[in-house]
Amino acid sequence: MTADHASVLALFCGLPASGKTTLVQRIRTVLESREARGVPWDPCVICYDELVSTDAQAEMAQSKGLTKESRQHLLEASDYYIGWLCGECCEPSPMCSDPLMEMFGRLKAARRGQKPDGKPLIMVDDNLYYRSMRAAWFKLARKYSLGFCQVFLLCSAEQAIQRNATRLLPVPELTIKTMVQKFELPRDEPWEQYFVAVDGGPGSMEKVMALLETASKQPWSPVDIVDSITDPTPPSQIHIWDLELRAIVSKLIRQAQEEKSTKSKLQTWCLVVQKARQNVLAYLKTLDFCNEKKEVDLERLMQEHLDCSTSGAS
């Protein structure tokens, strides 16, 4: 690999049964074959469904908290795993939770023979329907100075439901329909600039390989770490506030629907309240947890940001 190519973290996102795993395995097989040309990638796969069984996912689906916790374990285990792949001394502390330790161990055990001249191509195979989920992986790419890109598997709800029905352990049909409604597309943000949407058919491999090579030439630099005197908010608290803010957003949108707003006005309002939620959440992350976060009026903060948005637009 030439000096101007970096390791890459690539996200393969889409509905259940959209073809993510099939495409990832095709890429892995090609790259591991002696006939592979171009950048000598060393493929490594992080697949959520392989690390968390369908039965366990179904059980966790009864509680959003358990699903969130499981995904956090995966991110933390992947953090250690990527560091290990990049040659850093990254091993979880014996005090880490059992699920994290188990995931890290399974990721290492699944590692195949390393190419002496290759650099890791880390392919994450998961639904990742929220941008916040994908942003968490981007932070890992930035932390380890990796290239970063996203591959979206195009698939209609009907196709996904039909394919899912043929699986040995299908996910609930309602899960797919809900995911379709909640799926968030990339926006015009710097970290989301490298992405491609493919259907898994002819030509998909070529598009993905071209994207990977482009991303490898644009590795991200870690953000400078500055000493801070503030006590950052625990991730669990941020998650709680995010859920509460989402509930407020739902209420505001529901109120607009009850007022029988036009479709265009409703769409505009949805964008405004979602932007306000993001701004409030960003503001909360800047506060000193010990001194400023004991009492937070989320509805008041939302209203203040909405007032600023509407006044700025008038």
UniProtKB/TrEMBL annotation:
Keyword Nucleotide-binding: yes
Name of the protein this chain belongs to: O-phosphoseryl-tRNA(Sec) kinase
Organism: Rhipicephalus zambeziensis
Keywords associated with the record: ATP-binding, Kinase, Nucleotide-binding, Transferase
Gene Ontology MF: a single term: kinase activity
InterPro entries: KTI12/PSTK, P-loop_NTPase, Ser-tRNA(Sec)_kinase
Gene3D superfamilies, alphabetized: P-loop containing nucleotide triphosphate hydrolases
PANTHER family: L-SERYL-TRNA(SEC) KINASE (PTHR20873)
SUPFAM superfamilies found in the cross-reference section: P-loop containing nucleoside triphosphate hydrolases
